[in-house]
Amino acid sequence: xxxxxxxxxxxxxxxxxxxxxxxxxxxxxxxxxxxxxxxxxxxxxxxxxxxxxxxxxxxxxxxxxxxxxxxxxxxxxxxxxxxxxxxxxxxxxxxxxxxxxxxxxxxxxxxxxxxxxxxxxxxxxxxxxxxxxxxxxxxxxxxxxxxxxxxxxxxxxxxxxxxxxxxxxxxxxxxxxxxxxxxxxxxxxxxxxxxxxxxxxxxxxxxxxxxxxxxxxxxxxxxxxxxxxxxxxxxxxxxxxxxxxxxxxxxxxxxxxxxxxxxxxxxxxxxxxxxxxxxxxxxxxxxxxxxxxxxxxxxxxxxxxxxxxxxxxxxxxxxxxxxxxxxxxxxxxxxxxxxxxxxxxxxxxxxxxxxxxxxxxxxxxxxxxxxxxxxxxxxxxxxxxxxxxxxxxxxxxxxxxxxxxxxxxxxxxxxxxxxxxxxxxxxxxxxxxxxxxxxxxxxxxxxxxxxxxxxxxxxxxxxxxxxxxxxxxxxxxxxxxxxxxxxxxxxxxxxxxxxxxxxxxxxxxxxxxxxxxxxxxxxxxxxxxxxxxxxxxxxxxxxxxxxxxxx
Length: 551
Ligand SMILES: Nc1ncnc2c1ncn2[C@@H]1O[C@H](COP(=O)(O)OP(=O)(O)OP(=O)(O)O)[C@@H](O)[C@H]1O
Ligand SMILES: [Mg+2]
Known about the structure:
Layout: E1 6-8, E2 13-17, H1 18-37, E3 47-50, E4 56-59, H2 62-69, H3 74-89, H4 94-113, H5 118-140, E5 142-143, H6 149-160, H7 169-182, E6 185-186, E7 192-193, E8 199-205, E9 213-216, E10 218-220, E11 232-241, H8 262-284, E12 289-292, H9 298-307, E13 310-312, H10 317-327, E14 351-361, E15 364-372, E16 378-384, H11 387-410, E17 412-415, H12 419-433, H13 439-450, H14 452-460, H15 465-481, E18 491-494, E19 499-502, E20 509-511, H16 512-530, E21 534-538, H17 547-550
Parallel strand pairs: 8-16, 11-12, 12-13
Antiparallel strand pairs: 1-2, 2-21, 3-4, 5-17, 6-7, 9-16, 10-15, 11-14, 14-15, 17-20, 18-19
Helix pairs in contact: 1-3, 1-4, 2-3, 3-4, 3-16, 4-13, 4-16, 5-12, 5-13, 5-16, 6-7, 6-11, 7-11, 8-9, 12-13, 12-15, 14-15
The structure holds adenosine-5'-triphosphate and magnesium ion.
GO molecular function: ATP binding; ATP hydrolysis activity; ATP-dependent protein folding chaperone; unfolded protein binding
GO cellular component, one term: cytoplasm
Subcellular location: Cytoplasm
């Protein structure tokens, strides 16, 4: 039997309409948000996820938790995608965005139940979001132009405060800022960008996280192909190859009929000669460092050793792509020319670096490419007890690198610890009363929904969230109504002592873009789900067996 709001379709499926689907969607979103809620903030806890093959992931990152959940409900999936979007666009704030979106949806559902039309709620939400973003930009943003390097470090520390590496956040924050500065690229118009993908993060077991290190240059987790090759090459000319330097073989399916057995040897020799000639061409072009994704035959190694070149085999393709970018090389997948006659290797395909050297770093031998010509490069080697820990360290470091990059690019910061959300709550609440239309109710609910962040932060820290949030709102009300108290707009939660403090002084800073995007994305996701008033779900078609046809 179909329940209220559900009808059975002639097609073989179920259709859910009206209020019933709205409530169902809101409940699904809340269920998802409740999973990540307890991981928000510096005193939030981690989650352990075990997948169907038994792989364990321990994480505090909202996007990672949601990705591993395998959500079935269509509205829930929107929330998972939302967190992923925030992760790609900003890198941090993925937990917050899911929590806010769910809260907005819950509030909207209640409004619709009180007979407000969904379109009115949607309009109200859009309006509130726009006002909120404007208010942040005009009143709550700090510009890093007049703030120094320490504030960027503080932003990185705030991000890491909720993660596994929070105890060493000083150490890692310095490292992140330095690494991001190393890969700065200034384009023709003078605008600086920080492609953090150029930072290679390597993980090595053993020692403590404090022994992690930053390396100026690109660290390649490989060793030279033969011990007879030089350890160090200055003025390196680098060839990046995406093919093997092995005895060339006929393609599959080609058969050669040889009638004279003496010619067999000649064919074998020629197979070897083809690769030999290729290597000669590469060396002739001036290459003294050869990196390849494929293998190198032992016989071919001799050629490199004699030429005094350093060759590395079985490097990862992503690494080679990045090295090619950094050194100005071209990743070559074959030596064939457009003319189709003889194979060629042009010297312009080579990249350059000051030095390529194989060094022993902590317990591992790595090939380092120092001083690449086209761009700078940086690598971070993480140390940790086990894989689970190293993976989480990498994710946390990625969040911090993204934050540093955002701050350096946009040069705008806001104060964390619920300060922005509380300020927006007070402002939008007041703003709603100036609206004479029905949207007023939606704007007021939007304002209320934002308080979920300070509330959750406080309850995760085992503090009285209702009282703390009331106190926080009172501070922000004062700051917005009394001119002499405007400095109170930096008031935020002090989660260790269960009090309110000036979070700007305390150094709890976050990139403005993280908050703005978080609000925008959460509103959009809530609206997307709110617009749905019909769910038609078709039954799965049972596969019919056509055994008799095969017989
Ligand atoms: N020392 C602190 N005191 C008070 N609040 C803090 C402190 N450090 C961080 N916060 C707050 O914690 C929240 C961020 O928590 P968290 O990093 O766990 O979640 P997220 O950034 O939303 O998601 P994720 O990091 O998983 O992508 C922000 O609202 C931030 O203002
Ligand atoms: Mg975070």
